[in-house]
Specification:
15 helices, alpha/beta, 21 strands, 9-stranded mixed β-sheet, 22% strand, 6-stranded mixed β-sheet, single chain
């Protein structure tokens, strides 16, 4: 835990008592701050009270006595309209901040300049955050991982000059962190997202830009027009900025994916270039797929900036296990590879997995999303057979009819057994049993994590059974 001493002896309002809200309330109290906490949910209030957090109905509060409103990132700051606590705080000229801002203030007071890598972007930020932390830890560096990924930032160990914090930041968190000034700020990409909370794409991009603009070193994607504009703006302003790219393999001084390798080109006198080969991504099984090129490039640039040698970065990339439920390689049975991509809850997400493998035995289905899997038709040639589960089975069967062999399995356990059977009989060098459902899980599972956990356990049971039979015979 990081006790919040920067507000010691003062009174604050705190709204939102989910995971990060409870963490923040405890960190504030540990630092000697008087916390007045509230949530619109009676269940959340009851849980907070059980954990010893003082509740106060902020509808009735005298806001002139609060040093700040600590707002949960899930509560709207501006759009579609400000949360009622925001309106009350604004009327009283009370600053509105979040847990990332509290972390930054503690860092500024107790360990100014302590290494901080902050990652944002529309897609890929969790993988990039986890990859960076893994590389640093493998290099023997004291590393804290949290923020929007897993552990709330204030549950981590405090900042210190010898400790690196690797923090994933959502746009909501950035919007509540005016003091955010990372050692390395990473902006991976920008596509329309959360516009109901930010109003326009311009607002959304401006919030993301703050993270890299306030950093000592900015690492910025160059594969979309929004990020390319931010890259060029920072470069013109004299900011230290490193580009990363999948689609611009010859972008000078940028870390780029080119034919499966991370490369960097430098301009030399006489208009010649020096091409530097950085890392062969085929040596990192958990980073398969073109979409991971940008993640790996960002991780390489950030770790290099912190002083790691190229060999150290490469070792970390090779041993990176990947994130659970995101093209997670669960194991092998014979020559068949089993991959858990349960987080692929729509066709766009499943496309990345289908692009990453060949000879696929595809477990697909669940509660269908609008549009189904028709958009994936150009990739049907990569699929040896599909195994249909859940409510989407009839619709997906109609789409696959005549293009891909399929089997109606109904439930995940039946699909895993059938896919393993057929993959084992395949002539392919590496048949892949891929759970990438292109559907939400809610017809049969509480969430995609539960679905992925079930797949993993079923695969591990198959592998264990195979090992027992091998030992007997």
């Amino acid at each position: 835990m990081i006790p919040i001493t920067s507000l010691a002896g003062q009174s604050v309002a705190l709204f939102g008592l989910g995971g990060s809200g409870l963490s923040t309330a405890k960190a504030l109290a540990a630092g000697g701050v008087l916390v007045n906490a509230w949530d619109d949910s009676p269940a959340a209030r009851e849980k907070a009270a059980d954990e010893g957090i003082y509740l106060y109905d902020l509808h009735e509060a005298d806001w002139s006595g609060f040093a700040a409103l600590i707002l949960a990132p899930g509560a709207p700051l501006t759009h579609p309209e400000p949360h009622w606590t925001v309106a009350l705080a604004t009327a009283a000229a009370t600053p509105i901040i979040g847990d990332i801002e509290l972390f930054c203030r503690e860092r500024a007071v107790h360990a100014p300049g302590a290494p901080l890598i902050a990652i944002t972007g529309t897609n890929g930020k969790s993988t990039t955050t986890a990859l960076i932390a893994h590389i640093l830890r493998e290099a023997g560096i004291d590393t804290q991982l949290g923020g929007n990924i897993g552990v709330p930032v204030l549950d981590l160990e405090p900042p210190s000059p010898e400790r690196v914090h690797v923090i994933e930041c959502s746009s909501f968190q950035i919007d509540l962190a005016p003091s955010l000034d990372p050692s390395v700020g990473i902006l991976l990409n920008l596509t329309p997202d959360h516009l109901d909370r930010h109003g326009t794409m311009e607002n959304y991009a401006a919030i993301k830009q703050r993270l890299v603009e306030s950093s000592d070193c900015a690492v910025v994607g160059r594969d979309d027009d929004w990020c390319e504009a931010i890259f060029q703006y920072l470069k013109r302003a004299g900011h230290f900025v490193v580009g990363i790219a999948n689609s611009r393999p010859h972008a000078l001084a940028s870390v780029c994916l080119d034919s499966g390798r991370l490369r960097r080109a430098f301009a030399l006198p006489g208009l010649k270039t020096l091409d530097e080969n950085l890392f062969d991504l085929s040596r990192a099984p958990a980073l398969r797929g073109a979409h991971n090129g940008q993640n790996a490039a960002a991780a390489f640039a950030a770790c290099e900036r912190l002083g790691l040698a190229h060999d150290e970065i490469g070792l970390g990339m090779r041993s990176f296990p990947g994130l659970a439920h995101r093209m997670e390689q669960v194991g092998r049975k014979g020559k068949a590879l089993f991959v858990n991509d349960s987080k692929a809850t729509n066709a766009d997400a499943a496309e990345k997995a289908l692009l990453s493998f060949d000879d696929i035995y595809w477990i697909v289905g669940g509660k269908p999303k609008s549009g189904g899997i028709e958009s994936l038709r150009p990739l049907f040639g990569k699929i040896a057979k599909a195994f249909l589960i859940g409510e989407a089975s009839d619709d997906f069967a109609a789409t696959l009819e005549g293009a891909v062999p399929f089997e109606r399995c109904g439930t995940l356990d039946v699909a895993v057994a059938a896919a393993a059977r057929d993959a084992e009989a395949s002539d392919a060098a590496e048949p892949v049993v891929l759970l990438s459902p292109a559907c939400s899980s809610y017809d049969q599972f509480a969430n995609f994590e539960k679905r992925g956990d079930a797949f993993r356990q079923q695969v591990l049971d198959l592998i264990a059974e195979d090992a027992v039979q091998g030992a007997l015979f």
